[in-house]
Amino acid sequence: MVEHEFLGFPARAEVTPIPNLFFASVLPQIGDVAELKAILYVFWLVSRRGNNRFVSFTELVSRGWLPEDGLRQALARAVERKVLLSLEVEIEGKTEEVYVVNDASGRREIEKIKQGRVPEVHALVGQAEKGGKAELSNIFTLYEQNIGLLTPMIADELREAEKLYPWEWIESAFREAVALNKRSWRYISRILERWAIEGKDDGKIGRYSKKGVDREKYVRGKYGHLVKR
C-alpha cells in the first residue's frame, strides 16, 4: 500500500516541456530507473529557471531524491548518453558540476558559462552548498503554483526577495495573498515590505529590521519597485 495515495492531477496543473524525441529515441534505451529519474528531475528544474538554465550537482543532492553515489552514477550515464551536458566550475577552490539539457538552450548555456557570461553561477552554486538553493527553487514553485508563469524579470525579483526576507515570511505572504485572492507578486512584495518595516506577529525580524533600517536604500536600488507603495 502506498504511503500517500495519488488523487490525480488537478485542473490547469503546471507542466514540464520534454521533447517528443526523448520518448521516441531516448526512453526506449534507458533501463535504469535512477538514470531516468535524474534526467526527468533535471528537465523539471531547468524548465523553471529564469535566465540561467542549469542545475548543480549539489542542488540535486540537497533535494534527497537519490543517494549521492547513485545520483552521480545516474547523471554520468545521462551525460554519456548525451541527453545531458555537464561542465565543471571552480567555486572557492572547489570543483562543482553543473548540468543542462542537451538542447539548443542548454548548449548556449554551456557556452555562456565557459565565456564567463553568467555571473550568477558562483552565487547560485554557493547557495546550494549551504542548502539555500532548495529554498530558492521553492519560491519559484510557490509563484508558479499560486500566481502564474514565471518570467526572467519576476525570477530576478524572487531571488532578491529570498535574500531580503526569512523563508517563513515568504510562505506566509503567499498564503495570505491566495486567501485574499490577491494573486500578484506586487501584492505579495508589499506584504513582505510592510512586515520588514512594521514587524510581523511571529516575533521574528527580517534580514533587515525596523530599527535602523535604511528604507531609502531599497527604494533607490535596482529592486526599488519591490518596496515602493
- CATH H-level superfamily title of the largest domain: Winged helix-like DNA-binding domain superfamily/Winged helix DNA-binding domain
Residue runs with pLDDT of under 50 for 5 or more positions: 122-137, 207-223
H/E series: HHEHHEEHHHHHHH
Cα-to-Cα separation, first versus last residue: 52 Å
Strand arrangement, major sheet: 1-3-2
Number of H- or I-type helical stretches = 11
Number of strands: 3
Structural class: mainly alpha
Task: Say what the CATH topology of the largest domain is.
Answer: Arc Repressor Mutant, subunit A
The number of distinct structural domains comes to 2
Our Rg estimate from Cα atoms comes to 20 Å
